[in-house]
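Why does residue order matter? Because the sequence determines the fold. Keep that principle in mind as you read this record.
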Amino acid sequence: MTTAIQELETLPVSERIQLVEDLWDSIARSNADIPIPRWQKDELERRKQNYLRNPDSGRTWDQVKQDILQSR
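Structure:
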């Protein structure tokens, strides 16, 4: 594996980024069961319950994006 990594490191960054994207796409297409850790499931449930208790507490994508752009 080390030799493969060393060879990949000789590629231009743009090509390495493309390889990462291609690799990620191949994983997504594989329909493999990727285990979700218990802590992530718990956090999703906590957020869902919080939303159900107070559905107006969230912000729209436009609001979030505006905050990000203003913080630059």
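The mean pLDDT is 93.
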